[in-house]
Design brief:
Number of helices: 10
Protein name: Aldo/keto reductase
Family: Belongs to the aldo/keto reductase family.
Keywords: NADP, Oxidoreductase
Distance between the termini: 29 Å
Strand content: 5-15%
CATH topology: TIM Barrel
Structural class: alpha/beta
Strand order of the largest sheet: 1-2-3-4-5-6-7-8
Number of strands: 8
Order of helices and strands: EHEHEHEHEHEHEHHEHH
Shape: globular
Number of domains: 1
CATH class: Alpha Beta
Pfam families: Aldo_ket_red (PF00248)
InterPro entries: AKR, Aldo/ket_reductase_CS, NAD(P)_OxRdtase_dom_sf, NADP_OxRdtase_dom
Length: about 260
């Protein structure tokens, strides 16, 4: 699983998302993250096909939406996503949110798809430790990934430690705090210190913490810039400074209190 991917949340289906995927693949990205609820899987699939990059070299991720959760409906949702993407398999399929009373049946469906080799890896998204512990009590397979809101204002180190202990790869969504990261003075000073953009500093911090990151952009120059994070390293003192910004602040929904 490549540590850097392209997120396509809110990228419009059609030309916008297709171009974003093609530009990302041209720049060396090999990880594309979408979901059925984003309503852009067709455009993502078109971008993959038009890129000319061999399918086997691209790590493609999608997610089952809440209204499709349950055993049979998850399998149907998976097949529908594959059809829209125009692919034969997915590299990773995720349970998008821990829908109470449903996510265990949903997980059984993912386990079935994994055993049938329709998907190469299975995981979850927005699962807190109690959700994971509940799932692990009956799961045949440990989730291979947990995709969470993660940024300097929401580190959740205890959850990261729990995932690491159980060999669950932690992955960040909204690593740039939905744009609020650019308002922080500490980020401006670090960007000046390293001669990098604020986005590059944050994404590099993700990597040094061993966290997969999928910044979203549909702009060619930003997609290119976001990938330019492998030629420098943050000092450990700066990694700690960013860790210490943690204030438990979410910009997205609370996994313990959502109603969709």
């Amino acid at each position: 699983m490549p540590y850097l991917g392209l997120g396509v949340y809110l990228s419009e289906d059609g030309k916008e998302v297709t171009n974003a995927v093609k530009w990302a693949l041209e720049e060396g990205y090999r990880h594309i993250d979408t979901a059925s609820i984003y309503e852009n899987e067709e455009g993502v699939g078109k971008g993959i096909k038009e890129s000319g990059v061999d399918r086997k070299d691209i790590f493609v991720v999608s997610k089952v939406w809440n209204s499709d959760q349950g055993y049979g409906s998850t399998i149907n949702a998976f097949e529908a996503s594959l059809k829209r993407l125009n692919l034969d398999y997915l590299n990773l399929y995720l349970v998008h949110w821990p829908v109470k009373g449903k996510y265990k049946d949903t997980w059984r469906a993912l386990e079935y798809l994994y055993e049938q080799k329709r998907v190469r890896a299975i995981g979850v998204s927005n699962f807190m430790q109690d959700h994971l512990e509940d799932l692990l009590s009956s799961a045949k397979y440990v989730p291979m990934v947990n995709q969470m809101e993660f940024h300097p204002y929401l580190v959740q180190q205890k959850l990261i430690d729990f995932c690491n202990k159980n060999t669950i790869q932690y992955e960040a969504w909204s690593p740039l705090m939905q744009g609020h990261i650019f308002e922080l003075d500490i980020m401006k000073s670090m960007a000046a210190k390293y001669h990098k953009t604020i986005a590059q500093i944050v994404l590099r911090w993700n990597l040094q913490k061993g966290i997969v990151t999928i910044p979203k952009s549909s702009k060619k120059e930003r997609i290119k810039a976001n990938a330019d994070i492998f030629n420098f390293e943050l000092a450990q003192e700066d990694v700690k400074k960013l860790d210490q910004l943690d204030r438990g602040k979410r910009f997205g929904p609370d996994p313990n209190n959502f109603d969709f």
